[in-house]
Amino acid sequence: MKHLMRLASLLVLALTLSACSDNVTGSLTQPDNTTVSKTDLLVPGELSPEEAEGIILMRQEEKAARDIYIVLGQTWNLGIFENIAAAEQKHMDAMKRLIDRYALEDPVVSDEVGVFSNPVFQQMFDDFTAQGQLSIPEAYLAGQTVELQDIAALEDQLAFVDNTDLIQVYTKLKEASLKHYDAFLIHITTSSSNFNQ
User: Fold this and answer.
1) Superfamily of the domain at 2-26+48-195
2) How far, in whole angstroms, is CA 60 from its chain's centroid?
3) Would the pTM of this model clear 0.90, i.e. be above it?
């Protein structure tokens, strides 16, 4: 039994580390040793109103996820939340680059944790932080559900966007969210088996 628990712990650690090392857009090193995002090298296409709205929504979605994980990381002092919050910051930054690229108005008027101009994302933050502060298993479940929502939102965007840069960013974000989901699932399974002993 101890061997199985050690194996599960190692698997949790490996998934947590891989879940938090996602590179959203990739980068290239220039001859002068500066780096540039691969997305920045793509020629911007014509942005439809729906694509513009999607960028605005996904920027807020990523902030909500980041803020939830920051609060749960502070509540439980668990590395998974702190690490995935750092990854979500990268996702926020990727969306900000798209906002700047297409000269859109940034909906994130305050970077303060838990502050949103859109009531939908304020409610998302309030609900999931409340759930996640009930217990550690509930925190993992909240994280898993946040990732499911993020994946669904990205799939909605990928169903209609046709600009190469948007497709690239959303595909990378979805891959990262799937890793985060898997990491939470492993933690849920491991904590459940620990509580049942």
Assistant:
1) Ferritin, core subunit, four-helix bundle (1.20.1260.10)
2) 11
3) no
